[in-house]
Backbone:
């Protein structure tokens, strides 16, 4: 029985993963991602001028802003395409549990993103060639960046479960990702804390603690705390549970 | 093989299916008739485990669909209305995916694909993208998917919809042939099809079963009516009426 569960998840994963490479959208997104990641690092991050053998400020700093647009673009077809084509009905009458499908699809999108992120390796080579970087922060930076992307993808998965339109899914997911990013953005949090009465500060701090940003920063600086990893894992779990609820509501 | 009891489905305040019961044994072909919106598709979607019924019970080969859906779905093949397909796959890769979902791998998978390509006359388009298929091929590809694991129970929602007369004839023969060893339910608007392929027919109107019997029995149901068409029109209400 266990083998069968795994085989189902694998079959879904395989189909989904291959279908990403069948569509031109993925290639466009990966190219945009690489251009944006490098462009931000060299032009806005002043990677070369900073004279600092570190990727934290110049490179990883910009990733959340790229992800809030590009992760939904990758994930928007996850379930909305199934709804639109009607294949969702076919899938749900096959002998698999919705969870096997949800996880299979999510892993496929996660692997696609791992490939995209791995293609930024040239900047690691560059920084190693120009200086003598500390490998720790680079590794945690990549971990933080990847977890951030997975968080955005999971949010997109949840949004796509509720709509048959990829456009609606994209817009809703981008809005949710921006929200989850901005409520923890230091500049915004500080302003809100200053304008609201002091008694509400703990509430604001708590809300900002729920944001992606808060947990991303710590990790990208080189402090890999289990707490932050667990945070992203729980975001993913919650988003996938919401996905399951969305799929169930379509079958009610 | 299929036991359905007191099936009921309510969407909001609208009763889509109201107290429908039937059983289909191996070797029987049950035809679902009824006007559009009568609840045929909804009933089939519940039997296949896609929709959860508001009330009632469904058993496929003795396994309860509501309690053990994954087990019950194994012995079931389903052709949904409009024959949905993954548009970015080829016919063979789509069928391969469906075979894998049914637990077929390696040689068994290749054999199953060849078998259904044969049965549904799909060899010519084997490596063609689903996107570029004509309606007849799309329909048959989805039909092929439903029989890839040689299921004991087949549920077909308008299997001949959109096909030309030759294709209709082929599919009808295929249903009739498979009906000798399987339990089949199919829905249709074409009344000759019922006479040609069904051992039993049910007419559903506004969620309720209004007639049930062999095609010959149904024809004699209403005095003064000699064809299934006349019977159908006299016992179901058109949605054009107020």
Residues:
């Amino acid at each position: 029985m266990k083998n069968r569960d795994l085989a189902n998840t694998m079959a879904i994963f395989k189909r989904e993963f291959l279908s990403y490479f069948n569509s031109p959208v993925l290639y466009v997104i990966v190219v945009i991602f690489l251009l944006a990641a490098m462009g931000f690092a060299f032009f806005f991050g002043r990677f070369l001028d900073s004279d600092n053998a570190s990727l934290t400020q110049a490179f990883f700093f910009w990733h959340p802003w790229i992800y809030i647009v590009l992760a939904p673009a990758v994930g928007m077809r996850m379930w909305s395409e199934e709804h639109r084509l009607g294949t969702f009905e076919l899938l749900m009458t096959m002998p698999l549990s919705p969870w096997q499908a949800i996880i299979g699809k999510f892993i496929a999108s996660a692997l696609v993103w791992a490939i995209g992120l791995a293609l930024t390796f040239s900047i690691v080579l560059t920084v190693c060639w120009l200086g003598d970087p500390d490998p720790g922060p680079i590794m945690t930076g990549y971990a933080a960046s990847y977890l951030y992307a997975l968080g955005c993808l999971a949010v997109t998965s949840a949004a796509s479960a509720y709509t048959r339109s990829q456009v609606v899914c994209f817009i809703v997911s981008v809005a949710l990702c921006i929200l989850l990013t901005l409520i923890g953005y230091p500049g915004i949090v500080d302003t809100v804390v200053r304008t609201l009465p002091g008694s509400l500060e703990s509430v604001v701090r708590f809300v900002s603690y729920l944001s992606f940003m808060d947990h991303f920063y710590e990790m990208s600086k080189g402090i890999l705390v289990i707490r932050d990893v667990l945070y992203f894992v729980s975001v993913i779990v919650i988003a996938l549970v919401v996905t399951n609820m969305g799929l169930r509501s379509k079958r009610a | 093989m299929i036991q359905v009891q007191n099936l009921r489905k309510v969407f909001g305040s609208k009763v889509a299916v109201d107290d429908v019961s039937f059983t289909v044994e191996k070797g029987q072909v049950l035809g679902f008739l009824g006007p559009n919106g009568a609840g045929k598709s909804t009933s089939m979607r519940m039997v296949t485990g896609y929709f959860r019924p508001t009330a009632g019970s469904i058993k496929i080969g003795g396994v309860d669909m509501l309690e053990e859906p994954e087990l019950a779905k194994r012995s079931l093949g389903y052709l949904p209305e409009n024959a949905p397909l993954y548009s970015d796959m080829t016919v063979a890769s789509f069928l391969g995916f469906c075979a894998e979902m049914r637990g077929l791998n390696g040689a068994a998978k290749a054999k199953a694909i060849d078998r259904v390509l044969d049965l549904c006359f799909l060899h010519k388009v084997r490596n063609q993208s689903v996107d570029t298929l004509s309606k007849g091929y799309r329909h048959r590809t989805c039909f092929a998917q439903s029989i890839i694991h040689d299921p004991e129970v087949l549920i077909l929602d308008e299997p001949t919809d959109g096909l030309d007369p030759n294709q209709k004839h082929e599919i009808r023969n295929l249903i009739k042939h498979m009906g000798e060893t399987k339990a089949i339910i199919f829905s249709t608007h074409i009344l000759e099809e019922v006479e040609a392929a069904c051992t039993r027919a049910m007419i559903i109107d506004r969620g309720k079963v209004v007639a049930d019997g062999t095609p010959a029995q149904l024809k004699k149901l209403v005095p003064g009516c000699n064809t299934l068409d006349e019977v159908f029109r006299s016992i179901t209400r058109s949605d054009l009426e107020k």
User: Anything to note?
Assistant: Chain B touches chain A through 30 residues (CB under 8 Å). The radius of gyration of chain B is 18 Å. Strands of chain B lie at 2-11, 14-24, 29-33, 55-60, 63-64, 76-79, 153-157, 183-187, 200-205, 208-213. Residues 63 and 71 of chain B are 7 Å apart (CA to CA).
